[in-house]
Design a protein that fits this description.
- The protein has six helices and 13 strands.
- It folds into two domains: 142 residues, Rossmann fold (3-Layer(aba) Sandwich), CATH 3.40.50.1360; 76 residues, Alpha-Beta Plaits, CATH 3.30.70.
- It has 233 residues and is an alpha/beta fold.
- Helix content is 30%, strand content 24%.
- The two termini are 26 Å apart.
- Helix 1 packs across helix 2.
- InterPro entries: NagB/RpiA_transferase-like, Ribose-5P_isomerase, Ribose5P_isomerase_typA_subgr, Ribose5P_isomerase_type_A.
- Keywords: Isomerase.
- Its EC number is 5.3.1.6.
- Pfam families: Rib_5-P_isom_A.
């Protein structure tokens, strides 16, 4: 079974958690896309829910499937958010933002009573950091912010190169919020909490892709079946 089929299996299991009347946060990325597709089918069959998207891409997908959409202004408290991740560790700490949606994803996850991660089991790692950590920054003062981010990373005990994320055509990638992303190639993050705290203090950093204490559970699909971490039901 290939990774995409595994992602779809994890998404299908997450659909079991959805109940009529729920307020749902919809994640971003290839795994969340499967969840939104499956949810769209349930809505077509009569399921009544209201959803908030974590990106313009997910919003467009959900609207194309006639899923009723709201905003966090109209619906500031959500029951459940289902989202993918770039890395998950055994303590349910995550790296997110490979699809540049980390800021809205974190806001939506924080507004949710429960966030469940869906992924193929290749995303489960003993230690975070092999996947480059996305750090969303405002364009103003980029070089000064980059230096301050580098100092914060070193102070937390990590080390590695910072790369400004580009689009395939070579132009600088802009997030849905109009920000840049610095990808920190750290190889290993021994103390994610320390790094998160250090990055939170840098002016110009809007958000970073370390999600700590946000995920209640994870549904990880592998060749041997589904692995459930944390609280799923
Ligand atoms: O910004 C993007 C998100 O954090 C995604 O949830 C993450 O990159 C995982 O995406 P995928 O399911 O495509 O691997």
């Amino acid at each position: 079974m290939n990774a995409d089929e595994l992602k779809k299996q994890a998404a299908a299991r997450a659909l079991d958690l959805v109940r009529p009347g729920m307020r749902l946060g919809l994640g971003t990325g290839s795994t969340a896309k499967h969840f939104v597709d499956l949810l769209g089918r349930r809505v077509a069959e009569g399921l009544e829910i209201i959803c908030v998207a974590t990106s313009e891409a997910t919003q467009a997908q959900a609207l194309s499937l006639n899923i009723p959409m709201s905003t966090l202004d109209e619906t500031p408290e959500l029951d459940l958010t289902v989202d993918g991740a770039d890395e998950v560790d055994p303590q349910l700490r995550l790296i997110k933002g490979g699809g540049a949606a980390l800021l809205r994803e974190k806001i939506v996850a924080a507004a949710s009573a429960r966030m469940i991660v869906i992924a193929d089991d290749g995303k489960l790692v003993p230690r975070l950091g092999r996947f480059p950590l996305p750090i969303e920054v405002v364009p103003f003062g980029l070089e000064a912010t980059r230096r301050a981010v580098a100092i914060a990373i070193t102070a937390s005990g990590a080390a590695g190169e910072l790369k400004l994320r580009l689009r395939p055509d070579g132009s600088t990638l802009l997030t849905d919020g109009g920000h840049f992303i610095l990808d920190a190639h750290l190889g290993a993050i021994d103390q994610p909490e320390l790094l998160a705290q250090a990055l939170n203090t840098v002016p110009g950093v809007v958000e970073h892709g370390l999600f700590i204490g946000l995920a209640a559970g994870a549904i990880l699909a592998g060749a041997e079946g589904l692995k459930l971490l944390g609280r799923i039901e």
